[in-house]
Amino acid sequence: VRQILASRTYRQSSRATAELLARDPGNRLLARGPRFRVDAETVRDVALATAGLLTERVGGAPVYPPVPQNVLDFNYVRIDWPTATGPDRYRRSLYLFRRRSMPDPLLSAFDAPNGDTACARRLRSNTPLAALAGLNEPVFVEAARALALRVLRDGGADDAARIDHAFLLCTGRVPLAAERETLARFLDAQRRRIADGWLNAREVASGAPEALPELPAGASPQDAAAWTLAARVLLNLDEAVTKN
Fold first, then answer.
1. Of 8, 81, 181, 224, whose CB count within 10 A is highest?
2. CA 63, chain centre distance (Å)
3. pLDDT tens profile 57-110
4. Which helix (H) or strand (E) holds 164?
């Protein structure tokens, strides 16, 4: 596996010249890298890894991911669902407990198959449900909050440096000038909403109106909230969950 992943063929860009497209339109000869959204489990792991939350411990018992109560209530029999907390909550998706008769709502939105039949090949769809899951599911919201704190801690002293750092973490490249300007405008708009009282900075940054995360030196609750909202945008970029 290591040899395959390190090969020049596997690491090719999905961009190709007109000549290569003409010679190999179906990419049967591997003239370019394939471009596709990663599998459902990897979407979750990418968000957690980018945010610095992913628990990389190998082995051990499965963990129960957050699931809406109405999904649990829909089962024919009452089931215990001890939702994981602490580092176990952010273990790799390989270790997530799943019931065959109860598809995981998050993974299903990204086309993970259920356990009723064997799946030889996964299909990929693009639906509003996937976008809504990426923006609002607890694991992604928690990843956005953690990413915001990571950017404030490691990204530099001003928004310009932080934007470059955050974009690099999420996409593997620095932003274009237009992308940098758009994100800067977005941050300014969120800070105005917070200052005008439309948003509670503590609730956005921590999930509770009175709580406050441990902020990096020099950062304010307003900074954490604005960057949490920006992190939600970056984690949901097509480029953030796509092999290019």
1. 224
2. 19
3. 999 999 999 988 888 887 777 788 899 999 999 999 999 998 887 888 899 999
4. helix 159-171
Measure the N-to-C terminal CA separation of the chain; round to a whole number of Å. Answer: 19
Exposed (0-12), middle (13-18) or buried (19+): which is 18, by Cβ within 10 Å?
Answer: exposed
pTM: 0.89
Amino acid at position 64, single letter: Y
One-character DSSP codes across 86-139: GGGGGB-GGGB--BTTB--HHHHHTT---SSS--SS------HHHHHHHHHSHH
pLDDT in tens, 192-234: 999 999 999 999 999 988 888 889 988 999 999 999 999 999 9
Say how far apart CA 16 and CA 22 lie, in whole Å: 10
